[in-house]
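=== RUN LOG ===
request id: a7f3
mode: sequence -> structure
chains: 1
length: 131
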Amino acid sequence: MYFATVIMIVIITIAFAVFASGPDEVNIKFLESYGWQVGDHYIECRDVIIPEPFDLVYENYNVLQEEAGLDLTEYMGCRAKRYTYIVENYPEDVGEPVRADVICVNGKPVAGDIMTVSADGFMKSLGKADK
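=== RESULT ===
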């Protein structure tokens, strides 16, 4: 009985480690592929719908994606999640935290940006953020 309990605890622990990690590992690797270092866990997660057809906001946003070698056009009409992380290696102090957004469709990162949230802030391509 003791052995069976230990085995169950090990199995539950492994399952929790696999499933509880969520999107962070994939998203962090995605951001690292562009040279960005972020915290271990997202600070915000929001559901989004990528419009079909693109509105003006998404047309402009897709230009940023194309600068990073990405393209959202094949995801028009899709439900997605936007995960936000704090960037730890932005090359200058901009007076507020710099954030990295990752948009995922079916758990796969398909877009992202580097940005700040103040009224005079910025939004830049993952691959072109003055690094």
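=== NOTES ===
The helical segments are 2-20, 24-32, 56-67.
Residues 66 and 72 are 9 Å apart (CA to CA).
=== END ===
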